[in-house]
Specification:
The protein is mainly beta. Helix 1 packs across helix 2. Helices cover 6% and strands 37% of the residues. It is elongated. The strands form seven sheets. The chain has a five-stranded mixed beta sheet with strand order 1-2-3-4-28, covered by helices on one side. The protein has a four-stranded antiparallel beta sheet with strand order 7-6-5-27, with no helix packed on it. The chain has two domains: 116 residues, 3-Layer(aba) Sandwich (Rossmann fold); 250 residues, 6 Propeller (Neuraminidase). It has two helices and 28 strands. The N terminus is likely disordered.
Length: 442
């Protein structure tokens, strides 16, 4: 289904500074720069509305949980989830003839307090429009300390029941927080902006982090001598690398079986990749060319921004350029779905930056938002990005569907880098068959 983007995100232009041992090419712009007027981004040639999910509380006491699940699904940008009250619906599953035309499914949400076992259970029952003879059910036991994850996990499960592909609102975002001037902080938070924890130390210039094996965070920061080195979460000493130089960033494949490091020597920054940090090899991009902000896929392919140090930079995947000549691109990452290999990146567009997705199979490109530092959810259906502008809800991290739509703000602040890790395991799905209704007697 084609979808339109009525986006009012605006981002001022930034100039990528010449590189040095301490330059951060992904820094956000300084405050106080001029902003563009509100514009409409034409994502596709067809204009239509988002498909819809009805998230319905079984009873009044289940309304809070249903509302939180609705909010989590709304953040994915894949479905619209209007409040049942706005549609004139009360708690309890409505008759199908009362479903809005765009509704693909109605999901009943309930929470039961049990005496034995003593932990409450949250349940969802998904009724698909095109499958009248079955109900897809999930059941999640809320053990002590886990209730904060109930809504995002069930939201992921509902998406899987409806689409066959889960979302990852129960995952984690790694953010390079640039809100405090003179400081760069690595933080981990949930994709809805909650459950925030700090990884790097105070007063440091951390940057370019990612989730490594077992979810451990790696990032670049200054060592005691002032050189940018690689650090691992929970350790004060730098990780020793066989490659000399200063570290700009690191990225791991989704399965952590490949890694790529952005390393600088003098004024030249290049990408080094391999199966582990002690087996890094230079990714050749040609003489007199700089490579920035690399990411790596599970098959070892590297995507990075490549070009002369003074720019413009192009997105290059496996040695092949995927952006047009003259377009200044930056901060690429893989954004593949189950059926299509893609990359997401930002491009300079006049006085702002656009977030674009390009298919690696057919070259089809679309703009999904005005913003910077994009990162895709592991399923590839949701894009997180940082935006600065009065025409949204102020500077912060936003999420939007991969085909565009209205961005949703999830975090307030300034960010110069994002990574999205996969979500929690889902409760098993059970399919109950429903006998057809008996014909009315004549």
């Amino acid at each position: 289904m084609k979808r339109s983007l009525w986006s009012s995100a605006v981002v001022p232009a930034i100039a990528l500074a010449s590189l040095s041992a301490h330059a951060d090419p992904s820094d956000p712009p300084a405050q106080g720069q001029a902003e563009d007027e509100e514009v409409v981004v034409d994502v596709t040639t067809a204009v239509s509305q988002l498909p819809m999910l009805l998230i319905i509380a079984a009873t009044e006491r289940d309304q809070e949980l249903a509302d939180e699940i609705r909010r989590q699904i709304e953040f994915t940008g894949v479905f619209a989830t209007p409040s049942p009250k706005s549609l004139g619906l009360k708690p309890g599953l409505p008759d199908r003839n009362r479903w809005p035309g765009l509704a693909q499914a109605a999901v009943l949400v309930e929470r039961e307090a049990r005496a034995e076992p003593q932990f409450p259970v949250a349940r969802t029952s998904t009724h698909l429009r095109n499958l009248r003879d079955e109900i897809r059910r999930r059941e999640l036991t809320e053990y002590p300390g886990t209730s904060a994850m109930t809504a995002p996990v069930l939201a992921d499960a509902i998406m899987e029941d409806v689409l066959g592909v889960r979302s990852h609102m129960s995952g984690k975002l790694l953010v390079t927080d640039a809100t405090t001037r003179g400081e760069r902080t690595i933080r981990v938070l949930s994709p809805d902006g909650q459950r925030n924890r700090r990884i790097s130390g105070f007063g440091s210039l951390a940057r370019g982090g990612d989730f490594g094996p077992n979810g451990t965070v790696y990032f670049a920061s200054e060592d005691p001598s002032g050189k940018l080195a690689l650090f691992r979460e929970g350790q004060s000493k730098p990780v020793q690398l066989s490659v000399p130089g200063y570290v700009q960033s690191i990225a791991f494949a989704p399965d952590a079986r490949s890694v790529v490091v952005s390393m600088g020597q003098g004024n030249v920054v290049q990408s080094w990749s391999g199966p582990s940090l002690d087996q890094l090899r230079l990714v050749t991009v040609g003489t007199d060319r700089t490579a920035l902000s690399p990411s790596v896929a599970s098959d070892g392919d590297v995507v990075h921004a490549v070009g002369p140090a003074a720019g413009p930079m192009s997105v290059v995947v496996g040695g092949k350029t995927v952006t047009p000549p003259g377009v200044w691109a930056a901060q690429p990452a893989f954004c593949s779905t189950r059926t299509e290999r893609r990359v997401v990146y930002m491009v300079r567009a006049g006085a702002h930056w656009d977030v674009r997705i390009t298919s690696l199979s057919n070259g089809l490109t679309r703009t999904v938002a005005h913003g910077m530092a994009p990162s895709c959810s592991p399923d590839g259906r949701t894009v997180a990005f940082w935006a600065l502008g009065r025409t949204l809800k102020g500077p912060g991290i936003y999420t939007v569907g991969d085909e565009g739509g209205l961005p949703h703000k999830v975090w307030t602040g300034e960010a110069s880098g994002l990574r999205w890790r996969e979500g929690e395991p889902l409760p098993p799905s059970r399919v109950d068959k429903v006998a057809p209704a008996a014909p009315a007697p004549r």
